[in-house]
Amino acid sequence: MTFVGKILVIVIMAFALLFLGISVVTFTTATNWRAATEVQKKKVADLTKKNNDAAEEVKRTQKTLGDVQSANAAAKKQMDDRIASLNTEIQRAQEEITQSRTALEVAQANAKTALDEATAYKHESDLLRTQKSAVEKQANEFKIRQAELNDRIRELSRMLETATNNARDLRDKVARFASALRAQGLSDDASQYQARSSPPAVQGEISRVDRLNQRVEITIGTDDGLLPGHELYVFRTKPRAEYLGKISIISADPDQSVGRVIGRTVNGKKLQEGDVVSSTIRPRS
Question: What is the CATH code for 198-278?
């Protein structure tokens, strides 16, 4: 039973009680029945009218309530549809989020792999660049060394050509001297004439030292008066002047000679290119 129905039942019961009270009063008083009846009829008419008005009001209220319930039902259905649509959108958004998260994880994994590969490639590239720099440096050093060797070869070729010419001239001179000596009835053995006297006053430099530091080439020769057997003193001027030892001339050309180190050098020092050789500068006693 609805709320309006309950109201109607209560109103009817009130009217019934009212009618009952009126009837009791009428029968108990028993005075002026006609007037009382008219009064009661009037009251009944008023109550009937009120009851009808109340019924109409109840009908209007029920109609309004029905409209409100219909409106509420329609609104509820609309809200339910909206909720269902939102739930569908939420579910779709969640699926998209899940797919996006999966794609992001895959992308992050790919990015990490790519970063690791890039790091490895960079390390390899740096290593190759370092190796390339070292190879280029070594190649440049080889080129410089090759250029130096080529220069040395050209210099040695010139020296060889000069030595060959000097040797040819020397052989010619020796042959002429030997012929002249034999013509005078003298021996042509040069060893009999070596270093019969002290060396002349000469001074030169060491131009080359052999690997064992036992033989040296010097920049003065027979044109300066040197002969095999002459002995020269060896000095070093830088960083300070010092006596190193003595050499003995074992072969001599016009502009250079070869000497052998006599004994040991002072304090076992090795002779170097640029050291001074002299017959006039003597060591201090």
Answer: 2.40.10.340
